[in-house]
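User: Before I run my own analysis I want an independent prediction to cross-check against. Here's the chain; please return only the structure tokens and, at the end, one sentence I can use as a sanity check.
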Amino acid sequence: MARPSRTRRSVLASTGIAAVAALAGCLNGDDDPPEDEGEAEAEPEPEPEDEGENGEEEYQLVNELLIYDEDDGSDVDIADAFDGQWFGQLPTLSAGETVTLRAEFVDSNGDILELGDDEEYTLRTVLADGAPDDVVSIDNNDDTVDLTGESAGEADIVFELYDGSAAEWESPPIPAVVED
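Assistant: Structure tokens:
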């Protein structure tokens, strides 16, 4: 007679599990009351600004700019301009010290744009509008730039993707800091 008792236990356990599952399905898991039928539906999400008419993302010549310190021998970027802001910083210089920086301009396809004298684009670095001109000197070299500390202070600089006659893209300003 032990067999019928197991069957009753399994039937009772199965029924209990089914009841709990049915009850859990009826509850929405939060304390908010259900929405009234008469309430307005939520507004649709706005489409991203960089999508074209057919819903595909528009090509951006520069999606991201990565800056590397050529003097430290590392392949890790020290500063990254993305979505209009900088992450990271340039190395702090002493007066008379020079650092060589390399830039990688990355397009919206994830491709790195080739820079150099024989390429379509070069790197050009300039002082930002209103930046003091006695803090750091800039020596552009097609695909790298040498920054030399001149006197203690801070001057914002801008990296440009230059096509030989005009800047095709400009980074947001980033501070170049020189200490005594």
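Sanity check: DSSP finds one helix and eleven strands in the chain.
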